[in-house]
Structures are given as structure tokens and as C-alpha cells.
Amino acid sequence: MSDTPSILIVGAGAIGSFYGAILKRAGCPVSVVMRSEYDAVKANGIQIESELGDLSYRPDQVYRDGDSPEAAPDYLILCVKVLPGVDRAALIRPWLGANTRIVLIENGLDIEREIADAFPQNPVISCLAFIGVSRVGPGQIHHNSYGRLVMGQYPNGISEDCQRLSDLFNAGGINVKLTEEVVGERWRKCLWNTPFNPLSVLAEGADTDTILDSDGGEDLIRALTEEVIQVAEADGYPMDRSIIDKQIAGTRKMTAYKNSMALDYLNDRPIELDAVLGNVVAIARKHGVAVPHLNTMLVALRMREKLKVKERS
Amino acid sequence: MSDTPSILIVGAGAIGSFYGAILKRAGCPVSVVMRSEYDAVKANGIQIESELGDLSYRPDQVYRDGDSPEAAPDYLILCVKVLPGVDRAALIRPWLGANTRIVLIENGLDIEREIADAFPQNPVISCLAFIGVSRVGPGQIHHNSYGRLVMGQYPNGISEDCQRLSDLFNAGGINVKLTEEVVGERWRKCLWNTPFNPLSVLAEGADTDTILDSDGGEDLIRALTEEVIQVAEADGYPMDRSIIDKQIAGTRKMTAYKNSMALDYLNDRPIELDAVLGNVVAIARKHGVAVPHLNTMLVALRMREKLKVKERS
Question: Are residues A198 and A261 in the same domain?
């Protein structure tokens, strides 16, 4: 592999487009597979306004679903949402070569297994993104804040592939924390996301202050977080319980805000229910851990989805 | 008291107007206190279309809030919804005499105490209505189905006052079951309402089939019902657990429908959250019974209400 390995972004929404720009800045050839915004990106490239400067770029190739790649990429970066209707393995299969590393920049827990099972020969690199970025028009992205990645080989370890990709992100201006235990990092991110995100949706888009200041709100968050910790422990990732106090204090210190799942809900976009909550409850069941609070949220939200399907049909 | 005691309905919505009509048919003088539909009822009386026939009537007196009564009634029937913003004691205080019996035809659990505490000298008769009735216009009511009452003295017993009122309802064409333990009857009604009603609201108006057929739905209903049973038991009202199977089978047999709380939610009317769920959780806390499933629903729904207040201000 050269010093500037080839990159293909599958699912070049806000997050994929942004990290593509960073690798472009690091000198890599970056191509994209577009779904809905092919024409705009083919014509004008990707515009990104950022505190890091103007990150706009023209991808080396702009593909759309169904095209055939000219050559398999060194790194395929998958950034689509993890949703029941989206067959992620099918999305990336046409673009993979024997030596392509699969990079997941996606939310949630246990979202790697489906991909690792489908492509046992391809290394999987799992990343968590801490970023505020949004689409403002076709091929137009606004980068609001942060951008840090936490990255590791799946299911564990730090491979040379990880190290090389991390160096490239660093060269492009993004801080990367490499971890031997990326699944543990996912559990740590879930300690906040798994309680707050679905609860904000159940409460019809409540912001963090409303959640914590409602009668019984902070106690419910504590109970939900305690359940996530118990599942993480049963799954082999022990957590320090002092994290609960720290999280609540940290959340109270921030200006009230609506998390990304709440915004998806309020904008009538699908929510990553399984990635953030369903998989946690499934792992709890596997280990025989009782999670009544988490399960109540999950089942109520599944009812909503069932009702939506029913009312559309 | 004469054979046809005087009746005053406070909160003459669909339910109050209907039961007023029944007592009118039994020969009682029936007056009403209106809030919003005073003009229509003053001009045209109350129109009720029913399978029992045309139950329309002109109340003997049509009052509005702030009026002074000509004479205190023998029975004051209160039919308003039990909501945090509604001071029920203040609503009925101006109309009570020393010998007025207070009759509550209202939903939920532990909704009598506030009234009994405020008026310790006046007997309180507590009623559960099993009825389908709806308002179709100002002073216009459609009676769809049922009408049976379960009635008892609060906190327990069957007084002569109950017996007399029951006889009048029977004379007017409505079946009344008198009970020595009206609080136990309220718990029994809660075995269905407390799980199903708030859950349907959390699920944005899901009907009974959607609730039971969702992934994990029946199990969640079972867990919620089991918690209600445990609270009822701790409160002195033991229940036979076979009731859970019976309820689920009975609900599955019915055509899918949206319960009254779901309809309130979908029509942007306030829901009786405390009467149906909050009071159950409060009693659980008093007795040290853990109710994680019920509490998750309650807190999430309280967050919604807090959010609504916040967004209106």
C-alpha cells in the first residue's frame, strides 16, 4: 500500500463527506458512492464549511449505487445509519477487494458483527465519531464542532492498518484516539446514548435539561445507566460506577440540547433504535441481565414503528 | 330526602350529561353547572342520542361557574377529568350543603382522597363508569355503548345513600353494581387501564392489537400488569394472577381499538396521567414496591408534559 492509500466513502452524507475531506487533505485519493445526491456532487463536488477552513473537494471518482468500481479501494469507509431496512453488507459488497479494509464510522453497539460475519477475510476497523456536522443542501455540509475519532481493530487490538489510517486522519487535522478495546469504547459511549437518546424520543424530543429536571427524570437516567453498566459488565467490560455522577454533572453543565436521535425523530427521519438500544437489550437477554427500564423504552418505541408501518399501509 | 332527591351535575360533559339524563328519567330534578357550553345548554337543553332512546332533557337549572345555587342539592355528581390543573374541591365547594352527598364518576385510582379530605362532613360515593359516550357538539352527546356503574361508599361500605342512588339509576335504565370495596374495584379496573392507557400514549396512539403484537409487547403488558397487582396487594387488595391471562385473551378477542387516553392524546387533550398511573407509582413507593416498568412510562410521559409547558412559554 502506498503512503496515500485509496479511500472510498460509502454513504457520503454529512459525516462521510467530512471524513473524506480530511483524508483528501492528507493527500489520499478519495472517491464516493452517492445515493441521492449524485448529480450535485458529480457537478460541483462536495462543499464543506468548517472552523478548520474551507474543506470543499472534488472526489476522485463519484459513483452511484449499481456502478462498478475502477479498482477496489485500500480503505472502504462506511458511514450509513444502522437501520433495519438497510442491508449494509449488500451496500459495500460490490466495492470490496480482497485487501480492502472496512472502516465503520457509525453509532451504536454491536454494529460490527454483521459486517465482520459477511466478510471474514477483510479486516474491520471500528470508529466512534465525536462530531457536530450537518447537511445543509445537496453535497453541502456544515461542520459545526469537534471531529475526534476513537478507533480500533474489531473485535480488539490496534493493527498496522489502524495506525496508518489514524496517521492520515491526524495529518488531515483530526485527532484520533487508538484503542485496544473498541467495543469497550462503544459501551462507554452507550452509557450516555442508550439512556438519553431513546428517552428523549419517547418524550417527543425533550432536551437534556427537560429530561434531567422532570419529576423523576434524573433518577430514571440513573436507573437506565446502571442497567447499561450491568450489561456491559456481563459482556466483559467492567465500568466504574462513579461515571454515572460524572455524566449527570457533565450533562447539567452543558447548555440544554436535543441529541441526534431526538432531532431525527423531530424531523421524521428513522432512528437508530437497534444500534443504540435494541442491541443492548439483546445482549442483556443473552447474559440473563434484567433491564426493565431499558426494555420498557425499547418496546414502546417498537410499537411506534409498528404503528407507523400499519398506518402507512 | 324525598323519593326523588335533587341532583346537581358539575362538569356536565358527555359522561355527566348522560348520567344526568338517566336520573332525570327516574324523576329527579337535575341541574347542571356548565363551563364552556353554558349558552347552548341554556338555550336548547342537552341532546342525547342513545340506543336507550332519545334521552334529551332540559336541566331544571343551568348554572355556570361563579353562580350561586338556589338550594344545595341532595347529590352532587362530579364528572370532570382528574388533571393537575383542575382544583376539584374548589369546583364543588360553592354548591355543597351540609347534607349534600358527593358522587364521583371519574377514572383512576386514589382520586377520592382529595375530595374526602376537603369535605370531611360530606359522604363521598365513588363510581366507576363502563361506558362509551362522546360529545358531538355544544350540549350534544352521542351514547355509543354500555353505561354500567360500579358504586360504593368511600373508603368502603354500601350506605343507604348509595342504595338510594343505585335504585334511581336502575329506575332510569342503567345497571349498577354496588360494592363494599370500591377501592378494590378501582384497582381491578387499573389492571387494564394502568398498563394499556399510558403505553398506547407513549406509542403515539397505538391500538390494542399493535400493543400486543409488537415485538415484546405482550410481555411488557404482562410485566406492567404484574407490577400493578403487586402494588394492589401491598395496598391491601389481593388479586388472582390468572386475571393477567384472562385480560390478554379478552383484549385479543376484541376488535383492535384505541383507548380513551390514546384518543385524548391524539386529539391534543390533556391525559389523566396521575389518576391512572402516577397515583399507582406513588402508592408503590409508599409501600416500597419496585415498579421499574410503570415508572419508566410515568417519567417519560411527565417529560413530555414538561416539554409542552416549556415550549408554550
Answer: yes
Q: Which domain holds residue A210?
A: 184-312
Residue A2: inside a domain, yes or no?
Answer: no
Question: CA B92 to CA A36: how far, in whole Å?
Answer: 62
- pLDDT tens for B18-60 read 999 999 999 999 999 998 899 999 999 999 999 888 999 999 9
Is A168 found in the same domain as A225? no
Q: Is residue A271 part of a domain?
A: yes
Predicted ipTM?
0.89
Domain count, chain A: 2
> A62-64 and A30-34: which strand pairing?
parallel
pLDDT in tens, A156-202: 999 999 999 999 999 999 999 999 999 999 999 999 999 999 999 99
d(CA A112, CA A154): 7
Say yes or no: A132 and A190 in one domain. Answer: no
On chain B, the residues whose CB falls within 8 A of the CB of A206 are: 303-304, 306-307
Closest CA to A130 of A193, A47, A39: A193
Name every chain A residue with its beta carbon within 8 A of the beta carbon of B219.
299
Question: A252: which 3 cell numbers?
Answer: 447539567
Please tell me the number of Cα atoms within 13 Å of A243 on its side-chain side.
15
Helix residue spans in B86-181 (DSSP H): 88-92, 113-118, 160-172
Beta A140-153 vs A176-178: how paired, if at all?
A: parallel
Domain CATH code at residue B147: 3.40.50.720
Q: Which three cell numbers stand for residue B119?
A: 369535605
Cβ <8 Å between B214 and A306: yes
pLDDT tops 70 at residue A18: yes
Residues A131 and A63 in one domain: yes
CATH number at residue B274: 1.10.1040.10
Cβ atoms < 10 Å from Cβ of B229: 20
Partner residue facing A307 (CB), from B203, B297, B298: B203
Grid coordinates representing B284?
408503590
Residues B259 and B176 in one domain: no
Q: pLDDT, tens digit, for every residue of A200-258?
A: 999 999 999 999 999 999 999 999 999 999 999 999 999 999 999 999 999 999 999 89
